[in-house]
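Worked example 2:
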Amino acid sequence: MAVLVGKQAPDFTAAAVLPDGEIVENFNLRSYLNGSYGLVFFYPLDFTFVCPSEILAYSNRVPKFEELNVKVVAVSVDSQFTHAAWRNTAPKDGGLGPVKFPMVADMTKQIARDYDVLIEKDGVALRGTFLIDREGVVRHQLVNDLPLGRNADEALRMADALQFHEEHGEVCPAGWQKGQEGMQADAKGVARYLGEHAEAL
């Protein structure tokens, strides 16, 4: 599997359903992000099982992502029309209801290939998540197998950590949470941090 961290996020143009329900044929990732941070996540299929729980978890946290200037984008191999039908189905009936971010139709499966999350024999994507900085560079990636749902709060934590590092120049130790101190990236800094926090890690 390709490691995209440190590389430009593959750009793409494809059909998508926007948060207001409009279907567009030429949604472009780079234009949509337009200098914002991005969180692009792949999921296997519409109208399945783990997927709606993840999509709703991300959608419910969109206000928090917006506070961090992070734009969320979902991608699967389904058509834009299937995305729309799923959004028009209530959660109590196995649907999503309105989702607060674009849902991209990767009908050719090329986007999943470019991000190296496509299971070729099954024709669906693994649960890949990619955090993109304001320069379009992937700074964090996580790929889960199909049965394993993601933690949307961890995606927020990673966005917080990236922005903390950008602002302060310090690195974020294990389990770092917003509001906690970072670490100077040198021998003195790690010794000081571990001297105060080693037993709590």
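Strands lie at 13-17, 23-28, 37-42, 70-76, 103-105, 118-119, 124-125, 127-132, 138-144. The first strand starts at residue 13 and ends at 17.
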